[in-house]
Amino acid sequence: MLFAGFPETAFLEALFIGCWALVRLGQARRHCLAFAGWTTAGMVLGLALAAPVLVAFLDFLSWGSTSYHEAVANDISYPRRQIMSLALPFAVGALNNAVLRLQAGYLTLPALFMALVGLTGTRRRGIRLLLAGTMIVLIGNMFRFEPIKLLLNHTPGIKAILVYKYGISILEFAVVIAVALAVDDLARRRVGRRRTLVCASLTLAYAAVTLAVLVSRGYVVSPRWTTAVMLALAAVCAVLLVLLLRARTHHDEAPVPADTAGAPAAHTGATATSSPARGRSLAAPLAGALLVLTAAAHFAVPQAGASRAAAIDMKPVHYLQQHLGTSRFYTLGPIQPDYGSYWKLGQLNVNDLPVPKKYGEFVLDELRPSHTGLSAKQMQDTFKDYQLIPFNPPAAVERKLLVGYGEKQQAFREAGVRYLVTRPDVVSPATATRLGLVKVLDSPKTDIFEDASAQPYYTSDGACRVESGSRTDVTLTCSRSATLTRRELDAPGWRATVATAGATGSTKAVAVADGRLYQRIEVPQGTSHVTFEYRPRHFELAVGVSIAAALVLLVGCASTLVRRRRQDRHDTDVAAPACGSSSSSDSVGTVAAADQGTSTTEGSERA
User: Fold this and answer.
1) Which among 161, 259, 341, 371 is placed 20 to 30 Å from 11, CA to CA?
2) pTM of the model
3) What is the DSSP letter of 280?
4) Is 224 exposed, middle or buried (0-12, 13-18, 19+ CB in 10 A)?
């Protein structure tokens, strides 16, 4: 999870796993020290494997901004009406409906029913209590139950995390394990009638109240759809109810008939265990199959609301890939933020957290205009320290944003913004002339304008001529010693290496100076090749730790395999003589084999 770039989810999952480990530690009894040792070793090795990512992330936080995450992230919750979508996400439609607009989860009604059955069992009570407590805490926090919210906010690190959003994966995990416990109880015939009926009543109450609220508030878009969905889910729950009620509780040892008294122990044991084995039938596999099919159907439902045939306009992307070079583009809507990274294009817009503090200050102080005609709410949503025009607004809004672009055009030029991307018919010919923009591409959904006055990626006050270059290296010829400005955000960890042509010992490391916003280095007279590289502090050490952890795991895996093979050979060697002495006829066979020069042990090894 850390390597995938989700530290918040990793932190929440670590808390859950820690609680799980404590419960299991209490159950380990005589093996508690070994359990604690192996658990600690796993934790240490896991962190060691992720060391490069952790070092880079922690270093970034030292000069990055987490904005509202610093104090109030966990104060955000779902509207309480969204509890209807927790286990009935598609009750009123496939997509774009009042219930799904702020989706609170993707559980299913049959899974809710079986999870309740699983939580009320008697075996592995510690784990069931942990799962129940986890669900209560996460759901209470998700829908703003103040005592739970207050409790979580006093847990170190929780206030900075969107628990209502990132905790859903743990909630779903807890439900899945609870369902698995219920299916296991069904297979073992450990489900009581009263317990089943209580859980069914709670599930029915949730569905009935949800349906009543949906109808009373006018959320039902298609009565036929809602009726079909509710009937289908009710049918699945009814089948599960029948399976649970038919599986009567039994004891581990079946009663032994009177006529078997005094019979050999092997015969008695077979009689005691064969009846439960025959009685398990197909109830548990059928229940599991129904739950999986229901979950798969929920996964497939959103496809019903997807576009059947949507033409994707790739011309703007292809044009920028061919002409952008080391410059940047700025969008008023099309090619939304962060898709520049996806297409490997330099984009000024961003919609991400955390972000460098300097970038956030640059957006708020240099790029946010004072006169656009936008409302205060629109300005707040459009210009944030971590979010610059995050959505694709209509043409009328883009025209107002264009006014703000004209007001701050010089700042955009200084940032190396050479291309402006808009919807069609947003920039009039008169406005384009006034702003010095030239239309270079028009397509059905996008217009692209070029600003020839934008600053290049590398500048040196006219002292140097760039021969060739990319974002990480440049070859230039300078008439004198000069300061090279690279329009990349200055940050700790950047290094530069300058190789001067025709000089002995020409390669040397050069400090990247703090240019307030952009990077600056000193370059000598003549032709030089400059390479830029980003390395956070202690990164090399972290890579070494990660490699060492991987080697430890590989050696441990290999030693385990060798140890198991030796144990298997030992068991075979011990078992062969025992089998050979079980009867007189076997003994004769052993002697005969020995007379023929073949020992019993050798024969068993070959077998």
Assistant:
1) 341
2) 0.77
3) T
4) exposed
**DSSP line for 399-446:** HHHHHHHHHTHHHHHHTTEEEEEE-TTSS-HHHHHHHTEEEEEE-SS-
Q: How far apart are the first and last CA of the chain?
A: 46
Q: What percent of the chain has pLDDT over 70?
A: 85
Q: Read off the pLDDT of residues 269-287 as tens digits, 9 standing for 90 and up.
A: 444 444 444 445 788 999 9
Preceding amide of 316 cis, omega within 30: no
214 CB-contact burial (10 Å; exposed 0-12 / middle 13-18 / buried 19+)? buried
**Do the beta carbons of residue 473 and residue 466 sit within 8 Å?**
no
Q: Which of 92-96, 416-420, 508-512, 599-603 has the highest mean pLDDT?
A: 416-420
| Per-residue burial over 14-45, b = 16 or more CB atoms within 10 Å of its CB, e = otherwise | bebeeebbebbeeeeeeeeeebeeebeeeeeb
CB neighbourhood size of 502 (10 A): 7
Per-residue tokens: 169: 């994966």
The encoded tokens of residue 318 equal 């292809």
Q: What per-residue string of b and e applies to 455-485 under the rule 16 or more CB within 10 Å gives b?
A: bebbbbeebbebeebeeeebebebeeebebb
> What is the amino acid identity at position 111?
A
Type of residue numbered 523: V
Give the pLDDT band (50/70/90) at residue 27.
Answer: confident
DSSP annotation of 81 reads G
Secondary structure, 3-state, 192-219: CHHHHHHHHHHHHHHHHHHHHHHHHCCC
- Whether residue 456 contacts residue 466, with contact meaning beta carbons closer than 8 Å, is answered with yes
For 552-606, give the DSSP string: HHHHHHHHHHHHHHHHHHHHHHHHHHHHHTSSHHHHHHHHHHHHTT--HHHHHHH
pLDDT in tens, 79-101: 888 888 888 888 877 666 656 66
